[in-house]
Design the sequence.
């Protein structure tokens, strides 16, 4: 009963991030409509309307994420590997949709921003590339870094699974180190969790097959999208 009750925070974290893009779309529509009705002199009210929902949403995500990290250590202390594996898979598999959508949205956004600047300036932007490129790199690095933070709660569950797997003698020390490193890299963390769950603990075989199909679809969809974008210019 306690595990089911505390698992709510795990599902809440996944749900919050999965709804990120739809909520962002609704947020932009509402903010745009409200800003049109606010007079220019109400700067304070404008800033509150724009930033308060963002602080609330990402603050909630951060708090729930930290709670999940703390719970991963508690589960390790109970010595319950199956519960820890289940939590890891909920995080890793549950956020696959979020990361796929996030990657596509960011890819399309930065691609069209770059093309819009290049086409709008009729190629003159190339002259200012030494000035514009660093800003673009900073924006991309910030986006990737912010997205990377989202994997941390699941990665900590993965680390606890690795510790339990090593403690049970299923893997050696060197292999445990490699698995730990994989937990902090996009794509590799999901594949590593898949391997640990199915091969070492015999869990999540059906869900792993589904996620594998989703990954293949995402790869082909990305390749198709790149080809289509190239044909547009």
Sequence:
């Amino acid at each position: 009963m306690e595990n089911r009750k505390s698992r709510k925070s795990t599902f809440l974290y996944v749900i919050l991030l999965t709804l990120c893009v739809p909520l962002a779309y609704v947020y932009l529509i509402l903010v745009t409509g409200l800003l049109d009705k606010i007079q220019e002199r109400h700067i304070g009210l404008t800033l509150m309307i724009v930033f308060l929902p963002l602080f609330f949403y990402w603050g909630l995500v951060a708090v729930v994420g930290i709670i999940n990290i703390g719970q991963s250590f508690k589960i390790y202390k109970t010595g319950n590997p199956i519960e820890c594996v289940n939590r890891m898979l909920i995080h890793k598999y549950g956020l696959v949709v979020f990361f796929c959508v996030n990657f596509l949205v960011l890819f399309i956004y930065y691609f069209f921003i770059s093309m819009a600047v290049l086409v709008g300036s009729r190629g003159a932007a190339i002259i200012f590339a030494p000035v514009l490129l660093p800003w673009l790199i900073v924006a991309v690095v910030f986006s990737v870094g912010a997205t990377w933070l989202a994997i941390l709660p699941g990665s900590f569950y993965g680390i606890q699974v690795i510790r339990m797997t090593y403690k049970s003698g299923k893997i050696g020390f060197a292999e445990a180190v490699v698995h730990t490193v994989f937990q902090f890299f996009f794509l590799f963390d999901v594949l590593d969790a898949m391997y640990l769950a199915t091969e070492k603990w015999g869990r999540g075989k059906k869900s792993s097959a589904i996620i594998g199909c989703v990954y293949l679809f995402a790869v082909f969809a990305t390749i198709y999208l790149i080809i289509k974008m190239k044909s547009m210019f």
